[in-house]
User: Which sequence fits this backbone?
């Protein structure tokens, strides 16, 4: 559901900025079946889990047309940041539930463990998606921030995005783990 919320947030941000592509495609819904990507939601997670014990996957990206956005300068960045922002909001909500569980009468360890997992998953999604490698959201934010004269940087990142992403996942993933756990500790106490 966190991935679904992430994708719907992209589409909703684009819709608020004048692009109805996601709405017209029926993708502004929390129905997870609409967002399933055969490879990213079924095959890759199954293979990853059976071979490493770690689940990795993705949902079908919500379509939007950047040329329909009212704000051409920052539109891509705003649509891109909406996904990680939604993951942060979900993490904060569940983090607050954990922090104040005693005051709310929540004593179920099963629920609290599940809530911790929700916080962790959403923080992983947020931080990972902010990495500036295409097609991750961080790349769209980066491309909105750098001047046009550095278009070569964008072209190189896009050309080698698959290799860069695989390299990052296998060798540099350790760099973002401390960020995730610092945020996790701040949210749940």
Assistant:
């Amino acid at each position: 559901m966190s991935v679904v919320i992430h994708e719907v947030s992209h589409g909703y941000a684009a819709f608020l900025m004048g692009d109805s592509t996601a709405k017209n495609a029926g993708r502004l819904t929390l129905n997870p079946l609409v967002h399933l990507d055969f490879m990213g939601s079924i095959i890759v997670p199954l293979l990853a889990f059976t071979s490493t014990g770690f689940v990795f996957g993705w949902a079908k990206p919500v379509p939007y047309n950047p040329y329909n956005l009212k704000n051409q300068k920052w539109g891509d960045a705003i649509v891109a940041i909406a996904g990680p922002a939604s993951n942060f909001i979900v993490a904060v909500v569940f983090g607050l539930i954990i922090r104040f569980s005693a005051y709310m009468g929540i004593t179920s360890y099963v629920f609290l463990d599940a809530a911790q997992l929700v916080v962790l998953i959403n923080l992983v999604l947020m931080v990972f998606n902010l990495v500036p490698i295409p097609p991750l959201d961080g790349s769209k934010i980066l491309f909105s921030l750098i001047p046009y004269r550095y278009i070569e940087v964008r072209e190189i990142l896009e050309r080698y995005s698959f290799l860069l992403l695989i390299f990052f996942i296998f060798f540099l993933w350790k760099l973002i783990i401390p960020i995730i756990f610092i945020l996790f500790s701040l949210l749940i106490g």
